[in-house]
UniProtKB/TrEMBL annotation:
The lineage of its organism: Bacteria, Bacillati, Actinomycetota, Actinomycetes, Micrococcales. The chain crosses the membrane at residues 20-42. It comes from the Bacteria. The keyword Transmembrane helix applies. This is Band 7 domain-containing protein. Keywords: Membrane, Transmembrane, Transmembrane helix. It comes from Microbacterium psychrotolerans.
């Protein structure tokens, strides 16, 4: 047994063992490390922008009106990467939701609505839109929120009555009114606008409570709801 073991570590046998171990180590460690270093895998729900020296690579588009060009986009899959010259930056392109601040909006009939709303959006996977999203806009959520909020305000100003339409009617109108501007300025796709809360403001309710009613048999009756509301607001 000792002779067999000593024979393995003598002369040519030791050289064969070293070569075999080196080959196995290369296949198990070195080759996967190189593949991981020179291959980029982009998962579903993400995309990547190719960069050089930390800056996105911009290609000039022929015939583009603004002349701003596009970034190089890597879609989901496996791509070759050269760390010396090119690298990449992952961008999450899944849909997400952003809340709008509560706002008091006045309808055409004078009704005031305290509106809580949110909008769903996602980045558009194209070279021009991702460049706008990543480079040209400082705060995409704030800019898109201002655009959507302005469109919602303008639509509410045109509505009559004390109740806003349901979301399945109101949302498409808001999206149609500002989706193009949101894409141009922010590089994102506006999916829907959802009104999560709609309440008449206390100012409107108080004005209705203290407004004199026309003379009729029922006007002399005591309005309990108006009295309670006026008492609550005056105590505040």
């Amino acid at each position: 047994m000792l002779d067999v073991i000593s024979g393995m570590f003598s002369g040519s046998a030791l050289g064969v063992l070293v070569k075999t171990s080196g080959a196995a180590l290369t296949l198990l460690v070195v080759v996967p490390a190189l593949m991981k270093l020179f291959l980029v895998t982009v998962d579903e729900g993400s995309t990547a922008i190719r960069t050089r020296n930390g800056k996105p690579i911009i290609r000039r588009s022929r015939g583009a009106d603004d002349g701003r060009g596009e970034v190089v986009v890597l879609r989901p899959g496996t791509h070759g990467a050269f760390p010396i010259f090119y690298w990449y930056r992952l961008v999450d392109v899944r849909a997400r939701s952003t809340d709008l601040p509560a706002r008091s909006l006045t309808a055409a009939s004078g009704h005031q609505h305290l509106v809580h709303a949110s909008f769903d959006w996602r980045p558009i996977v194209s070279g021009h839109d991702l460049r706008v999203l990543e480079l040209d806009v400082v705060n995409v959520r704030e800019r898109a929120g201002n655009i959507v909020g302005a469109a919602l305000r303008d639509l509410v100003h045109q509505l009559d009555g004390a109740v806003l339409p349901p979301n399945d009617l109101l949302s498409p109108r808001v999206v149609d009114a500002c989706s193009d501007l949101v894409r141009t300025d922010c590089g994102i796709e506006l999916l829907r606008v959802i009104v999560t809360g709609d309440a008449l403001t206390d100012g409107y309710l108080l004005s209705q409570a203290i407004t004199p009613r026309p003379a009729d048999p029922q006007s002399a009756e005591w309005d309990a709801a108006a009295s309670v509301l006026a008492t609550r607001l005056s105590s505040v």
